[in-house]
Structures are given as structure tokens and as C-alpha cells.
Amino acid sequence: MKVFTVKTRAMLPPKDNLLSLIKESFLANKIKIKEESIIVITSKIVAIAQGRCVKIDQTLNKEEQRIVKDKLIKKEADFYIDRKYVPKQLVTLTIKNNILIPTSGIDESNANGFYILWPDNLFLEAKKIYQSIKKEFKIKKFGIIISDSHTTPLRAGVSGIGLSYYGFYPLRDYRGSKDIFGRKLKMTQTNIVDSLADIAVFEMGEGKEQTPIVIIENVKNIKFGFDSTKKDPLKIVREEDIYYPLIKNIKWSKGKIKN
């Protein structure tokens, strides 16, 4: 694989134009997108393009700001566990879009005094970005991933995850094939979306790198042309997940509360 970042100008909250940013950046960096590339875009700039930004009230003290943020987190979450149950009360734990994520994905870094929420309609947004790039750059077979960084239970640090994708099938299926000793594989599927998102997020960085777009070339065994807005094969029903025993024994509160 070949992996390279795209340097961009700052995407400015509360709202900015994503397609203009992509066009300007690709032109400035003399980028020509190759067929069968995967383009990974951080969710933050997609959210800013949608105007999914909430101004932080600087007249409030830190405790008052935390109360406001917690209400916003619970409103955005599908399910949540209040921060009072979390060690050192660091975060509110949430499930949003079938993903276990702290604070409903709301971020304050590189946000210029705003809370940046997760984008709405993530799979439809990935499709729209795909269609815009396809039209603008005249390419036929490629994929889009909208990524974010997240934490893994019992592991330090952040890594990457794909919130949505479009244009390629997300799994590489090994079921029915044999390993090097002839044992038939029964369950193994490779999650292509999160694997590539992890590589991209590592390259993007978490500070002031200003590289929110990554292009990955020469990825093997990708099936292009899949429409993820109709079905997401990555989604597992919670009751069928192997980690469900951990989730079911926790008292989750329902999110999307009213102000």
C-alpha cells in the first residue's frame, strides 16, 4: 500500500465548504487520484461542513461548561452512562450509531471554541462526498471512509475507526477457507474499513498537523461498487455480539433527551 496525507487549510467552524477544501488542497498538492484508491476524511471536517458545531459559552465557569456539555452529550447519545460512574469522572460513556464511544464523539480539539458533534446521516454523507469527488476528478472505482479516533477498552491511547464508508465492500471473508495447516476457518472476516481508518488516523495525527485527508493506494482484494446506504454489513445486533454479556449487565440510560 501507499499512504499519504493531504495538507489543507484550516476548516473553520461553525460552517465551511468541504468540497472547496478538497479541491483547493488537491490542486495545491498536485494530487491526481488513482483508480481504486481509498480516500479517508476525518469526521470533524465533515461535521463542520454540515454546521454541526455548538459555540462554547466562555462566560460560564469550567463546572458550568461541563454541565452544558454533558447535556449535549446525552442529547446526542443513543445510550449513555453518566460520568459519575467513570473513574475520575473523566467522560460520559456513550453508544452512538452502534459504536461504543466516549462523549458521543463530541470534540473540542482543533475546534476554535466550539463543540464539534459527529456528522448527521454518516452513510449518506459518505455517498455525497463520493459522488462529488467522482464528478470533479473523473474517476470511476474508489472508496470513501469517514473516520474518527477512539479509545479501546483496557488499552492506552487512541486509534482509528471508520464511522461510515461508501464505494467498496467493508469485509474480507475468510470463512470456509483453510489456514496454513488445513484447518477450515469458521468465523474470520477482516474489517477493511476500520483497518484502513486506523492507518489513516495514525497518519493524520491528533495535534496541529492539519492533514485531515489521507489517500491510500494499492489496497489488495477490495471489491468496489458497494452501496453502504442500503445495508451496512459491519453492523452487529447488540444481542448477537460476543461482547454483549459486558454490555447487558450495565444500566444504560437512553439518550436524545429534551432540553
Set down the secondary structure blueprint.
Elements: E1 2-6, H1 18-28, E2 37-42, H2 43-50, E3 53-55, H3 62-76, E4 79-81, E5 93-96, E6 99-102, E7 114-116, H4 122-137, E8 142-151, E9 158-166, E10 171-173, E11 189-191, H5 192-204, E12 213-217, H6 244-248, E13 253-254
Parallel strand pairs: 2-8
Antiparallel strand pairs: 1-12, 2-12, 3-7, 4-5, 4-13, 5-6, 8-9, 10-11
Describe this protein's structure:
The chain is of the alpha+beta class. The chain has a single domain (2-254), classed as 60s Ribosomal Protein L30, Chain: A (2-Layer Sandwich). The protein contains six helices and 13 strands. The strands form four sheets. It has a five-stranded mixed beta sheet. Strands 6-5-4-13 form a four-stranded antiparallel beta sheet, with helices on one face. It is globular. The protein starts with a strand and ends in a 5-residue tail after the last strand.
CATH homolog superfamily: CofE-like
The CATH topology is given as 60s Ribosomal Protein L30, Chain: A
CATH architecture: 2-Layer Sandwich
Which strand order do you get reading across the main beta sheet? 1-12-2-8-9
Ends apart, CA distance between termini = 48 Å
Poorly predicted tracts of residues: none
Q: Give the DSSP E fraction (strand runs of 2 or more residues).
A: 15-25%
Total domains, how many?
1
Would you list the SSEs in sequence order as H and E? EHEHEHEEEEHEEEEHEHE
Major sheet details: 5 strands, mixed
What is the mean pLDDT?
A: 94
Gross morphology is globular
Specify the CATH class: Alpha Beta
